[in-house]
Amino acid sequence: MDQPVSARRLPLHAALLAMAALPAVAIAQAVHDPMRPPMAGSAARSPSTPAGPQLTAILQGESGRVAVFNGEFVRGGERVGDCLILAVLADGVRYRRGDRVLEVHLAPAGPSYIKPAAPWPGPPRGAEP
Q1: Quick one: pLDDT at residue 41?
Q2: Could you please report the per-residue DSSP string of the chain?
Q3: Contact call for residues 52 and 70 (beta carbons, < 8 A)
Q4: Per-residue confidence of the chain (129 residues) as pLDDT tens digits?
Q5: Which residues contact 105 (CB under 8 A, 6 or more apart)?
Q6: Whether 86 contacts 95, CB under 8 Å
Q7: What is the b/e burial string over 28-61, where b = at least 16 CB atoms within 10 angstroms of the residue's CB?
Q8: Chain centroid to CA 122: how far?
Q9: What is the C-alpha to C-alpha distance for residues 11 and 19, in angstroms, rounded to an integer?
């Protein structure tokens, strides 16, 4: 026992310090950063990601309708992955996947209404008209 007491306790202190840092690392890994891009090659889907094709928009122009289907601009007759776009409808897309013909539609907009404003209380007291 030629070593001083503080030198003998150094491995113990290092082990305690490492054990104290482990929960912080576990918590940091569990926190989701919405600004972080998905990891490349990640096959896991988030629970909020739908399994089927996504239709984001239908655009009507002079040359006809264009859809944003799975993030790509498409017209009838074009392919996106394993989907053949048969037609771009006013509110959706008709496509063929394998031997099935399917449609996906935009979600309907919620109810729109005009709400009357609160009655005008008038000018503040003491203000000149």
Answers
A1: 52
A2: --S-HHHHHHHHHHHHHHHHHHHHHHHHHHS--TTSPPPTT--PPPTTS-SS--EEEEEEETTEEEEEETTEEE-TT-EETTEEEEEE-SSEEEEEETTEEEEEEPPPPPP--PPPPPPP--SPTT---
A3: no
A4: 555 555 556 566 666 666 665 555 455 555 666 677 766 555 555 555 556 788 999 999 888 999 999 999 999 999 999 999 999 999 999 999 999 999 999 887 766 666 667 777 777 787 776
A5: 55, 89, 91, 92
A6: yes
A7: eeeeeeeeeeeeeeeeeeeeeeeeebebeebeee
A8: 46
A9: 12
Q: What is the pTM of this model?
A: 0.49
> Which tokens is 95 given?
């496509």
Residue 58 has φ and ψ, to the nearest 5°, of: -125, 125
Q: At 112, which amino acid appears? A: S
74 contacts 41 by C-beta, under 8 angstroms:
no
